[in-house]
Design brief:
The protein is α/β, with parallel strands linked by helices. The chain has one domain. It is 36% helix and 20% strand. The strands form 2 sheets. Strands 1, 2, 3, 4, 5, 6, 7, 8 and 11 form a 9-stranded mixed beta sheet that branches. The protein is globular, with a radius of gyration of 23 Å. The N and C termini lie far apart (58 Å). InterPro entries: AN11006-like (IPR038883).
């Protein structure tokens, strides 16, 4: 009875360890399993398709999360060492990882496997405007060898940022003493000129590989009258609509505003931005 109980406990512990945690170097030796593993009778291209089916999520993987691998099968990599070597490249290189705090992004490679995380090519960040200066600014724009986006992830091909802004409720006060027409269309035209948004763009561009695709969605909750005005009067502005009524423009080049002169130029780098608005009865913080 005691042995059965111990075996049951070990099985329970094993099931809870099905995450993206790094695999031990003591994984099963290929020599003990190759003769029995039909997977290796397939061409590498077909094996990669199997790895993709088992290890790649259709949506960004948030971390930290108790359900990190809920729709994946990372335990598949424990079969033997060659499956581990081949599959880990797909697991880390083909998924998009989502972070809501820069410390999480910084710790992820250390908590998993530095060598494997070096294969990560796509990241997704969720950033609130009130957190940018105090939390994200240094991490995104720094050249620090121990804590910076540039050094933590050196093979990035794409960065997606969801930027949650309170701009709509603060407009037009953030633009100084010059009177600005307080209407929905004016807010729409000037959303890229928000000071913190400009700082975010500057940080993303600083010390960054020019070949990285950067897409930023500037997300706003707006009063229902403003929403209706923009949707009904300017239907051509909107490229897509969500289930909750959120409307999003297409991605366009970023406008860079000079803080001293106020001159606006179009950024030539591979960075694009879209506006997303979601209707509410009144803007809340």
């Amino acid at each position: 009875m005691a042995a059965a109980k111990e075996h049951s406990q070990q099985s329970s512990d094993s099931s809870r360890e099905s995450t993206l945690s790094p695999l031990s170097d003591t994984a099963t030796s290929p020599s003990s399993t190759f003769g029995e593993c039909l997977l290796f009778s397939l061409p590498r291209e077909l094996r990669d398709r199997i790895y993709t089916y088992a290890l790649v999520s259709p949506s960004p993987i948030p971390w930290p999360s108790e359900n990190l691998a809920a729709d994946l099968s990372p335990q598949f990599l424990c079969a033997n060492r060659q499956i581990h070597e081949e599959g880990a490249k797909v697991l880390y290189g083909s998924n998009t990882f989502l972070f809501t705090h820069p410390s999480d992004a910084n710790m992820f490679p250390w908590a998993h496997n530095l060598e494997r995380c070096a294969d990560i090519t796509r990241l997704n960040f969720y950033i609130r405007d009130r957190d940018f200066s105090s939390l994200w600014s240094d991490y995104l724009g720094s050249n620090n060898g121990t804590r910076s986006l540039k050094w933590d992830y050196r093979k990035l091909h794409r960065i997606d940022v969801t930027y949650r802004s309170l701009y709509w409720g603060q407009f037009p006060h953030m633009f100084g003493p010059q009177p600005i027409p307080n209407n929905a269309m004016e807010r729409f035209v000037r959303f890229q000129h928000e000071p913190k948004f400009q700082q975010l763009i500057s940080a993303l561009l600083r010390e960054r590989d020019v070949n990285i695709d950067i897409h930023v969605v500037s997300r706003h909750t707006v009063p229902k009258p403003d929403y209706d005005e923009l949707i009904l009067a300017h239907p051509s502005l909107w490229a897509s609509f969500g289930e909750r009524g959120e409307a999003r423009t297409g991605f366009e080049p970023v406008q860079i505003k000079d803080a001293k002169t106020g001159q606006v130029t179009i950024c030539e780098r591979k960075i694009r931005v879209a506006l997303e608005i979601c209707p509410i009865d009144s803007v809340v913080g």
